[in-house]
Amino acid sequence: MKKQTIIGICALFALFVLASSFSAAETEEEPRFEPPILLTSAGQSAEVQLAAVLLKRTGLAYDLMKTAEPKDLAGKKTLIFVLGTSLKGLGAAGLDLDQEKKRVGVLLDEAKAQSTPIMCLHLGGEARRGTLSDELIEAVLPSAQAAIVVITGNKDGFFTQITEAGSIPLIEVERAADALQPLKDAFQVQ
Fold it and tell me: Which of 39, 62, 154, 165 has the fewest Cβ atoms within 10 Å of its own Cβ atom?
């Protein structure tokens, strides 16, 4: 009887230790985002301004640079891309789509080289989807550690497919303003 009790207690202890190690491993895998933040566009859509307003409401330190370059990552601990292509926005920035893809690609490479976590926001919903936007989304999203997307922009499961393939946490919100709380959560803002 005593031998069975000791074996049972040891088995329970082993299960407890095993369960603790699994939850510790899960915690380590969660994306960690910290300020200061470099906020930029991937496609030059107007939603980058909306993202700036949301970040301002969080109280987090950020710099908005619509056409950020690798040098702008210096001293930053997080890179946020606002996904969505606007031909008008590209024109205003003096860029064409190929130049924007190149700029974004070089910035992604630098973020990876510096181990800077990347978050993607898609706040324009269905109106900010289409061939041009989707090309940039496919180029940027696989490098992200998390994505916050207005649900109408994911009606076809486009974001779900990319994030599931890369095991990237995807948070869907009803409208752009609803991205505030997930941003606070990601940066652990009270």
Answer: 165
Q: Which of 72, 107, 146 is nearest to 63 (CA)?
A: 72
Residue 119 tokens read as 């978050």
Long-range contacts of 160-169 (CB under 8 A, 24+ apart): 162/137, 162/138, 166/141, 166/142, 168/141, 168/142, 168/144, 169/30, 169/31, 169/145
* Cβ-contact 180, 148 below 8 angstroms: no
CATH 1.25.40 matches 33-186: no
For the beta sheet containing 146-150, the strands, ordered from the edge strand earlier in sequence to the opposite edge, are 62-64, 37-42, 78-83, 118-122, 146-150, 170-173
pTM here is 0.84
**Neighbour count for residue 70 (Cβ, 10 Å):** 15
Tell me the two tokens of residue 93: 């920035």
**SS3 category, 11:** helix
Angle at 140 between CA 123 and CA 52, to 5 degrees: 35
- C-alpha–C-alpha distance, residues 163 and 135, integer Å: 15
pLDDT digits (tens, 9 = 90+) for 126-150: 999 999 999 999 999 999 999 999 9
